[in-house]
Queue: 4 jobs
Job 1
Amino acid sequence: MRLGRTTGEFYHSKGREAVTDIGVVAKPRTTRYYALNFEVLGTMAESNPHFMNGVPELLILQVLKEREMYGYELVEEIHRRSGTVISIGEGVVYPVLHGLERSGALASRRAKVNGRSRVYYSLTPQGAARLEGLSDTWSRLSDAIRLVMTGAAHA
């Protein structure tokens, strides 16, 4: 495994741990997984990986709020919109998409594009409600973190 210092990408290497160029021991948890910019998050994602649970789901639902997309298109769009800070691997996107579809939050349709079969996903009313709840939760969390970081007192 190698952590790209400036790109923030994780590279998996058959389950071995490695010391990164910034001196942090990186332990892979799965064969393919998403990565957030390591310089931005530092060891937070490593010391508390569950803290980042729900991030891919939130971002996928938000992007699909505007229009339907296929999996790799979602990966690229999230990467672009985050200013290249967030890179979600395909090994995370597809299980999240399938789970959201099973739960009724997403609908899918198969289409041929340039001779290739693609599955396009779109937000359902259930998905829109789920997005609203997740957005509220993450906004409250973000506000609380900002309060702690700035030393501001809660009014």
Note: The first strand starts at residue 2 and ends at 3.
Job 2
Amino acid sequence: MSNFDQTVRVLARNVARAMSPRPSASPRHRADRRQEKLRLEERLRFETLLSELSAGLIHVPAGAIDAALERALQQVATFLGVDRGTVDIHQEVGRGGRISWMLPGLGEWPHVMDAEQFPWTAKQLGRGDIVRFSEIDDLPEEAATDRASYERVGTRSKVALPLSAGGPMLGVLSFSSVRSRRAWPAELVERLRLLSEAFASTLERKRVELSLAERLRFERLLSSLSTSFNQLSAGDFNREVQHALHRVVDFLGVAHGSLIEFSRDGGTAHSWAIEEWMDVGEFPWMTARLQRGDVVSFSELETLPDEAAVDRQSYLAHRVKPHVAMPLMAGGTVVGGLVFSGGDAERSRADELALMQQLQILGEVFAHALSRKQGELETQRLRQELTHIGRVSAMGELTASLAHELNQPLSAILNNTETVQGLLEADVVDLEAVREILADIVAEDKRAAAVIHRLRILLKKGEIEFVPLDVNEVVGEVAWLVKSDVLLRNVSMSLELAPDLPSVRGDRVQLQQVVLNLVLNGLEAMRPPPAGPRTLVIRTARDDAASVTVAVQDSGIGINETDPDRIFEALYTTKPDGLGMGLAIARTIVDAHGGRLVAGNNEQGGATVHFTLPVGRKDEC
């Protein structure tokens, strides 16, 4: 049973006793008894009100506490006949929150803990003491500043009680009157002190519940960001970072957000921002501090040192002021920085500390994402280097056929040129014959140029470019390139290309390399004389509605059935002079294109290696 309930029961018994008739009571005695009865009835009503309010606040959800406290303030203030009832929620810095009720027509009034206007009052309340006065003259001499402030806002009587739930000060409960004076007897103040305990418990419960809800929101945000970044490819990084910055800015309640990436040589590689205000070159002082691993935090531009003059001008030009800039560390190296602007909202010291802790944790997530992206790009660069080496190696295997392909047009050009020279030495020049020979020279020159052009495409180093491709066209270009080598090896090559295949999305050079590696692997498999004719078939087909298949079938020695997948392992080879990289590179390329590369033996001998590629979406093709 609460203190309020016990008091209510005692008062009820006293009222009943006061109402019971007594014989031989004098008129004065009867008048005193009526006064006592009225006083007890009023006190009973007040105690009942306080008991009901205290009990009602226990089960109010956190989101409805402010409204419940406002209704309670109105009920108590109305009962006491005062003009204002206020709960000022205390914060270490700033004005804090306020829940209040007042009569219509009254304006806002300052926070009672404002040490500039109410230094004596703030000091008393900060020590846990109650402040009360029935009229301003009741204030002591040391409260002269407070007296002037109360007169300025029209306060005639006031009681203020500190709110605490066993910990730091949560706020102040106060009631004040501006129309008339109001006495605050000790008995009434004690009742209000019990009410303040109920208010404090309610505010503490709200703080704990909101803090827990905020923590759960933060953990869900961290989990979501970590999952998104862990499943992220380098190609989707820009889009996902922008989305992540939006979510972080919304969660933190700040105005701007930016992510800076530093390259391995210490320069600025890239930056992302929700609103494109962050040009890192305009903030050299902040960037240098971040690269050293320092946290940059300030609230006023005037606090920046002289060496930050350029930064200060940039902040003024963009009308933003970063609240904090946090370095991002991965493996002891600064990989970037997170920069946020807090806008115009004033934060308490506790909120500042909470923000810094959240930014440190968020920084770890973004640092991991940047480090992972840089590692993936480095792996991609090395893979491209290896792929290029594979293409060069493949060209080395085609040296004889390529020499033959170039020798034919060059020999024809030489012969035609000698013939023209002979015709020009004649007394009568046959111009028509000269024209025909020159046309042949041009044609042979174009033929040689075409060979060199195809070689340059396969041998070039550059960025991967995914574009809509015709698979039959890719296969045809490779077949044209190897046709001389096929003839030199005494192999019969045929193409079985399915018509009307949908486009796939990929890099032309890389897919040409895959087909070339498979063809060269098939030709190599037929180096030992097979039992039957040497045949190589390149097929294309529609695998299903979502993919296209390219298959290379040979009549060679076949694949070891015990472990057919081993041929795709790096450095595995059955050739005496092979590197064991051709099929490994081919599988890596196909996987990067979202396809699948497999191999198996044919029933009639030899093997077939085929790969599938996903069909490009209509909006991509």
Note: The chain has a mean pLDDT of 79.
Job 3
Amino acid sequence: MSGNETPQDDQRIRRAQLAIMREELLAPANAIVGYGEMLREEVASAGHDEFANDLERIGASAQALFDLIESQLGDAAAWDIMKTDDTEAAQKTLRHDLRNPLNAIKGYGEMLMEDLDDLDDEALTPDLDKLLGEVNRLLAQLDDIVDFSGHRGAHRPTEATGQKSTMILDLLKDIRPVSEVQTTAAASGRILVVDDIEANRDLLSRRLGREGHDVAVAGGGIEALEKLQGENFDLVLLDLMMPDMNGFEVLARMKEDNRLRDVPAIMISALDEMDTVVRCIEAGAEDYLPKPFDPVLLRARINAGLEKKQWRDQLALEKAKNEKLLLSILPHQVVQRLNAGETIIADRYDDVSVLMSDLVGFTEFSAGTPPADLVKYLNWLFSQFDILASEIGVEKIKTIGDSYMVVAGIPEPRTDHANAAARMALGMMEVLKKANAEFDHAFQARIGIHSGPVVAGIVGTHRFVYDVWGDTVNVASRLESNSLPDRIQVSESTSRQLGGGPNLESRGGIEIKGKGRMNTFFLNSVP
């Protein structure tokens, strides 16, 4: 032990060395067992029954080797050997015991190789070569691997053993002992403890309560589901075996419920068979702890589960914010299509109504008005327009300066689009009157409406917008600019869709740039 190492440091290093020793023995032992099983399958498939007995002996010796490593180098057994006064004698005995099955495997394997050479069957040779190669390597390295002195590589130092020692020291520097780490909960949360045994519920709830968690208990699966439906929990400790409804079924129901599927569930059970663990993890369990569980390990699993839950909640919150932001600039249907993976959104609508509006004299007004006052007025006015558009069900497309543009009939087509655009225009005039009274101004507006086909879609990648294009948009813009203050000018196509009548005042023919002479009307009311 160096001058900087404590007895605890030395113990951790030697335990890590034991783990490396066990790993270096188990890796080739597993390979020997595996190659032996494949050879038995290949022999049976080829019909060479004469080799079956030797392969059975190889398999039995390989399994004996594996079991010996497991029994003698388990953590408790190996640590007991390292604490004895005569570790030299213990390691000699273990080396001898390990060589017995290795030599048996080698002997039977070499005889089998001779038989295969006589048979001139090369199909079985590769796997037998690999099996013997693992046996020979392990025999050659056995003295170096099985060393209880705590100084690996004392017999035949190699680059590999030096790397292993460095790896152990680096790992232990990064992973501090549990006693040095915070022993209280890293994150507190509301936890539901589900167990049909009252003593287990009491013990867990008291322990978790001391660590700062808010704990609720349920005595069975049905009660647990009732509590989960009525309350919010950050994590569930779920017993597997319960009389009314087992934990696996509770877990399945949680994962079927959109509100509960992201609540972490840690399964706890005295049943620790691998199939059960795997099925629970596959079903969505966050973790699985066999009873009786170590309190330190339980704390670590709970803290990890709560941190994941907090991360998921934060992610969901950010997603909701992003969704809300998208919905403020794009139609709901378009956002759904983007979320579904569409990258190019462009649609043709054969019959919609486009409304364009503009404030008369606003450019001159803005030149002599403080910026804050200007923005305050426009924000109030356009916010009221937005509310009106939402109530009527028309789509705001954009604002440009003091201009405001909406379209009725997109993204969901509607047969009454002209009527909706007319109601929007009349409502905007009423809102403008309220704005003038609120801010003591006397603004007037010009509005133009035209009905016809458009193309609508998303453009841009950084600051993308949902926009519309086509001759219908151009005509609506010309109608607005050629209208009169506080008048709503509509085209003949819009007039027809509105049904004509006394609510429309004919203006006669006017010259429209790019279109020539057009018959237009002033809208006074909605029929």
Note: Confidence is low (pLDDT under 50) at residues 151-161, 180-185.
Job 4
Amino acid sequence: MPDMADKPTFVIFDGNHLVWRHAHTKAGQTLCTRDGTPSGIIHGFLSSFCYIVKQFQPERVYVTWDHKSRARRRIMEAYRDKLMRNHSTLLAETPTQYKAARYQNRTNEDHSHFQEVILPQMDALKDIIPALGVRQLSVDDVEGDDLIGIAADKLSNEDARIIIVSSDQDLYQLLAGNVEMFEPIKKKHFTYDDFKTTYKMEPWDWVEVKALMGDEGDDIPGVPGIGEKIAVKLHNQYDGLLEVIEAAKQAPKSAVMKRIPEYEGQIQLAYDLSYILSDHRQLDKDQEVEFLEQWNEVPKLNWDEVVRFVDYYELKKVHQELRAVLVDNSLEAKLNTAPTLDAMFDIWGDCKRCPLSETRNKLVRYSGPAVCRVMFLGEGPGPSEDFYGDPFVGKAGRYLDDMLLASIGLPRANAHVANAVCCFPNINGEIRPPTPEEVLACEPRLKAHIRLVRPRVVVLMGDKANKAVFPDAGKISEEHGIEKSHPDFPGVVFFPVFHPSYLMRLMPGPTGHSDVVKSLNDWQVIKRLYEGA
């Protein structure tokens, strides 16, 4: 098993599983507010969340939620249609639909408890999770296990340690050298090595065991008389599911083996129903679009909303625990306590917080003095910056140096230059503006960056740079040349101007395009501001 000590950690919560685990604890069944509102599941869920975040210090956290699987319904319906034509005996033994018994076997009391106690708390958790700064995956007609499988596979490309918070044995097939499971109630790990030691097979073979034994709880039919122990024994004895089936057809001796050929179609059905997806391209197109939209969202911590939530449910201890892991020990807190700009970037690390990291060549930090009276902020690196690793070194950079900085007598070496995002926004190598989600992912770094430079003036070059600091800002054509202040940076003047790449395409000089003339005036104001005149 590879050493994961120095790798970033990502945590994936099996949301439904954690809710049900806490629903069956004493606190989950009895805890409520003074007015009788049930709160035990919320208390348990958020307490587990705090423990895991504190224990593992994850770089990112995901919570997945379950929906009935459209794909598995199709598989079950196709199998039953086939049995209707060819095998009426087995048809009677096959569930009418996937996971039907889970709902049919509920008593009226169970149903009322779910509707009145469990479901409202689950919905409340779904509402508050984005305010925790946590990514949430909940796609119509896609099971939570499939979302976990797809997420684990995508995160595996980032050379990281992945922890799945669940004790659901269906997820064993996802275990790998960098993927482990953590049981949140008993606080126990289950790793790739643990699985190999216990079952003497590779984790991805677990679906073959499930194909033989089925899963009564999920209405997945197996071979009658085969449970986990026998399924594991047969798989290991014959070295795989296909070999078990082939051996069963060759004069089998035991009653169990004699039964397997009759249920071969059912074994295939159980395999298909138990197999967990690992690629978003395996989803239907509408589901894939919804998944990718959720995957690329970058939620922001809304502490005021979190406080209102825990106060409503009267969770004083959870309030303290959440403050400790989300505020006092958050990435933002670490960035803001960095003594120098380079130390802050060391904390930021080899950032993979948004999809831009997948196509970048270099993470572009800054140029110029680390502490400077004037800071120039662009929107993002271009291809030249991505190649060299420094901001504004292409055509726009030359225009900035030769036309704009020169017009106020400021050498480039005396100016601090950076961008709202550190990675090259592009589509197949073609320049594009960063999306609001990409800018938001870089926001903690940008805020710490500005504080550590300690500028008197921050020049916001272009619309995207202006909106990176002031999300509700208007068009740059309306806001350029206006001095602005920001509550997070008292005493600092923010000054929007046209982007150099826009100006360089216009007729130059004092008799040129009107925006060039306006820009020359704006830059004289910049000179006055940073010189303190």
Note: The two ends are 63 Å apart (CA to CA).
